[in-house]
Amino acid sequence: MILIAFLGYNSVYFQKLSTHKNQKNVTFDFNLFADSLYFKGILTNTKAIDLNELLVQIKENSDSAFKTHGNRLGIGNSAFFMVKSQGKVSKIDNGQLTIAALNGSFINLETKYIFGNAIRDASGLVKLTDFKTNADFNKVSEALNTVIREKVLPKNISKIKIGDEISFTGALKLSKKEVLGLVILPVFITLKEK
């Protein structure tokens, strides 16, 4: 009898109805979170590696380069990297900038079609375990991509023209198996003053 009373007492608790109602009405503001993630996290994040240095490290020891500089959420041959570089704009085509890098290679910056999880994952600032569902985790990517695509990049690229020198930081997905044409999703672009 004592055991039943003890179990009954510990299995029931009371909470104010107003507190319970308020908890149900609280929704997570993904747009506010994405703004904060971008302006207080990604912009101040100094972990971006120079793109040329990364590519050299991958050629020398891809396992080490991926482990040291990459971020991946699971197993596999791909990882996301936050990289930085500079060069001269050689082509502008429907939101994609082709950059002639200092080492003679060409890099494509996609400024119009910013979609997917590359920026979120390359930043290393958000973990799957931070959210209850995969859908919520993906909403972070959507909101972050929107901030960059609609608020940040239009200001960054409005004055850029062919021949201008720029520096940039962006997200890149690479596979250990092969490194093909590089398409980077920029998180910011800076036009060098002449």
From TrEMBL:
Superkingdom to which the source organism belongs: Bacteria
Signal peptide: none
A Pfam family that the UniProt record links to this protein: DUF2291
InterPro entries: TM0957-like_sf, UCP033535_lipo
Record-linked Gene3D superfamilies: Envelope glycoprotein gp160, DUF2291, alpha/beta domain, Envelope glycoprotein gp160, DUF2291, helical domain
Protein name: DUF2291 domain-containing protein
